[in-house]
Amino acid sequence: MEEPKEAMTESAGENTAPAMSSEVPAAEAELSLVEQLEALRKELEQARAQAQEYLEGWQRERAAFANYRKRVEAERAQFAAEATALFIRKLLPILDDFERALRTLPDNLRHLTWVEGVALIYRKLQLALESEGVRPIEVKPGDPFDPMLHEAVLYEPAEGFEDGQIVEELQRGYKLGERVLRPTLVKVARKAEPGSEPSAAEGG
């Protein structure tokens, strides 16, 4: 009668051992899954931080490129303006020559065809300069001397003029937009000092 009890005990032991061993791998698997999730979360955070860093760097580079492009465009416009101003300055003496020639032309020659042709060329040159924004600096006797627009060639006492007033325009000046291409050369009145002789002086 004892043998069946031992058999029952042995069979019971065989049944309990596998149950305990199956619980351990399940716990280990759960722990491993938590670690994997934590590792993935850290990797995600690192990826987000890196992506944000890349985005900020790209935004900085884009802003820097936009500033560079604006600077290049401004420099290009400035260079074009300087080149235009330099070229126009070279044309101004030719304009002066036309004006002097037409101003000193005798009246009996003004009706000649070739004279009219020269006057037409002069007018075309004026129109070409005006189309580029060139305008003469308007000066009339009695205007106050402005060193930003005028260059004084002569200082001398002049009857009917106050000290510092323009007496005469000696050479026309021109502006390109608001920029002075060439100041107007003028004669400026100077108050005569008692006992001094009238004199002319060069200067700006």
Quick recap:
The chain is an alpha+beta fold and 204 residues long. 59% of the residues lie in helices and 14% in strands. The chain has helices at 2-103, 113-131, and strands at residues 134-136, 150-156, 166-171, 174-176, 179-182, 184-189.
Walkthrough of the structure:
There is one protein chain. This protein is α+β, with helices and mostly antiparallel strands and 204 residues long. 59% of the residues lie in helices and 14% in strands. The chain has 2 helices and 6 strands; from the N terminus they run ααββββββ. The strands form 2 sheets. Strands 1-4-5 form a 3-stranded antiparallel β-sheet. It has a 3-stranded mixed β-sheet with strand order 2-6-3, with no helix packed on it. Helix 1 runs antiparallel to helix 2. It is elongated. The termini are far apart. The C terminus is likely disordered.
- Helical content stands at 55-70%
% residues in beta strands = 5-15%
Q: What ranges have pLDDT less than 50 throughout 5 or more consecutive residues? A: 7-14, 198-204
Mean pLDDT: 84
The dominant shape is: elongated
How many strand units? 6
Number of helices: 2
Order of helices and strands: HHEEEEEE
Mind telling me the C-alpha Rg?
Answer: 48 Å
The largest beta-sheet arranges its strands as 1-4-5
Given helix and strand content, the structural type is alpha+beta
For the termini, the CA-CA separation is: 141 Å
Largest sheet: 3 strands, antiparallel
